[in-house]
Design a protein that fits this description.
Elements (H helix, E strand, L loop, with lengths): L1 E7 L4 H8 L8 H10 L3 E10 L5 E8 L4 H6 L2 H17 L5 E3 L11 H5 L5 E2 L2 H19 L7 E5 L4 H10 L5 E5 L3 H10 L6 E5 L2 H4 L5 E4 L18 E4 L8 H6 L4 E4 L2 E3 L2 E4 L10 E3 H12 L13 H14 L2 E2 L3 E2 L2 E2 L2 H22 L1
Parallel strand pairs: 1-3, 1-4, 4-5, 6-7, 6-9, 7-8, 9-10, 10-11
Antiparallel strand pairs: 2-3, 2-13, 12-14, 12-15, 16-17
Length: 365
């Protein structure tokens, strides 16, 4: 039996804490944030039933690192590192042979390098499989929406980060134009210069309000604490894959824009009769891609720090995709804002886009 652990933390503070401790929903959010800061990391569930197509089996544990996204970014870095490293030490003590970093535990500081240096088991951020599933989902959603992908403009929000740069590379030669979007002009220029662009035009932008309305496809992977994509930023018919946690796309977009399709990257079906022992908001037997990468490395007996730091290569993407196919992990359809994106929903968005175009054409006559 292979063994792994995975670090989780509350992304939406009160709601996520209340999944384990229902009383939290009745407390003021500042009090909940204060309490989680004072809480020690601990095991919150035992994961059983993972069985590969090869017959290999694995068990694991979710270990909670009790900090909110804002605390990960704003508290003293050594304090945050100590919390994450303590999670890793707990994993060692219970027999895990690899540990995965979830959500902001993989974002803070040097993206897992310091954590790995302080543990005796390997560490992975899961970002390789996150990218693989995000891009698979984006292209499939584009196909279902009838987007003319070879002639499309694609935007990458958070393009100077490791995931953003790799997503951009995977768009090369599949779209007509890529817009790299970020806050730092110097880093954007460097990302553009390092991108092997083939026949695809590559431009950069630090102005999300000006650049996103021209994009047919969008993959957003920023590390922002609050939503940065709002209804007025999107063109009708746009397909948006929001990989970021917390989300980059405002909930208002889902409420008022029925002519765009929002999906979340990295929702994966896990092989076997898996029981996570914890409700983290997904349907049964499905998980985030970063969780799934940790599981498949364990099933493979590949106990190494597979995805670490801020550089992800296409070779890593290809390798983890091969492991997913070998062991039976697959993209589990689409989800958006905690709900399944059904074929009926996609067809409704398509009709709304067409209706808008027809109305515009009549208005010009």
């Amino acid at each position: 039996m292979e063994k792994f652990a995975f670090i989780i933390h509350p992304v939406h503070l009160k709601r996520d804490v209340a999944r384990k401790y229902p009383v939290a929903r009745f407390l003021p959010e500042p009090l909940v944030e204060f309490l989680v800061k004072k809480t020690d990391p601990k095991v919150v569930s035992h994961i059983t039933g993972i069985r590969s197509k090869t017959g290999a089996e694995a068990e694991g544990w979710f270990i909670a690192c009790p900090l909110s996204p804002r605390q990960f970014l704003e508290l003293d870095r050594q304090f945050v590192y100590d919390k994450i490293i303590r999670c890793g030490k707990i994993a060692e003590e219970i027999g895990a042979k690899i540990i995965g970093l979830g959500a902001f535990t993989s974002v803070v500081g040097d993206a897992g390098v310091t954590v790995a240096e302080n543990l005796n088991i390997p560490v992975t951020t899961g970002n390789s499989y996150t990218v693989a599933t995000a891009m698979e989902g984006l292209f499939e959603a584009a196909r279902l929406m009838g987007v003319d992908t070879p002639n499309a403009t694609a935007g990458v929000v958070g393009a100077t980060g490791s995931i953003g740069q790799t997503c951009a590379q995977m768009l090369v030669d599949r779209v007509a134009k890529i817009c790299l979007i970020g806050r730092n002009a110097g880093k954007l220029a460097k990302a553009r210069d390092e991108l092997t662009s083939g026949a695809t035009e590559v431009v950069v932008s630090s102005d999300i309000e000006q650049s996103l309305p021209h994009c047919d496809l969008i993959v957003t992977v920023s590390s922002a604490v609050d939503a940065i994509i709002h209804p007025e930023h999107l063109k009708p018919g746009a397909v948006i894959c929001d990989v970021a946690r917390p989300r980059d796309v405002s909930g208002e977009v889902a409420r008022v824009r029925d002519d765009v399709l929002i999906i979340e990257g990295g929702v994966v079906s896990v092989p076997g009769d898996v029981d996570f022992g914890l409700d983290f908001g997904f349907p049964p037997k499905t998980a985030y891609a970063c969780m799934s990468e940790t599981m498949m490395l364990a099933l493979e007996g590949m106990y190494e720090s597979f995805t670490l730091g801020r550089n992800i290569t296409l070779g890593q993407i290809q390798r983890v995709s091969q492991l997913a196919d070998k062991h039976g992990f697959r993209l589990a359809g689409f989800r958006s804002f905690e709900e399944a994106v059904t074929p009926e929903r996609i067809e409704s968005v398509r009709k709304n886009v067409q209706r808008g175009r027809t109305g515009s054409s009549r208005g010009r006559r």
